[in-house]
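Comment thread on ticket #2218

A.B. wrote:
> Attaching the input chain for the structure job we discussed in standup.
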Amino acid sequence: MEHLFKNSRLYNVDRASISSCKSGVDVVLVLNTEDDLPETHVFLEKVMKAANRDQSSYELKFCSADESLGDFFQMEKLQFLIFFGIRPSNFDLQFHPKAYQPYEIRGKKIVFSGGIAWMKDRAEDKKKLWEAMKKMFDLPSTGQ
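C.D. wrote:
> Ran it. Output below, let me know if you need it in another format.
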């Protein structure tokens, strides 16, 4: 089911940052600026590898609380967005998304996840993220 935004006032990442997504990228992982740490990169690389995504197919974007992410929904090739530690209440949505529940908005599949620091020692949240990613990427239910 597709849900639409009330308006396009979301977080805003500068256009140079968005337009510089690598060729072939169809997944963007959006995190808070303070999560731009080596251990975050390692963790996300493992997560994406488990989802059969190599580094050429996704990109990390770090933003601060006063930025807007609405421009992501204008990128035609972008199909998937995972927001880590960015609350859905920061978006003007016509619905109230639940964490770890995949949604489709303007043809893009999105998931809101807990922040990386939050998930670090919470196996239950990691499992919820993995289950959401399996739905999002149409991965088989068995294995992993």
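A.B. wrote:
> Thanks. Noting for the ticket: The two ends are 28 Å apart (CA to CA).
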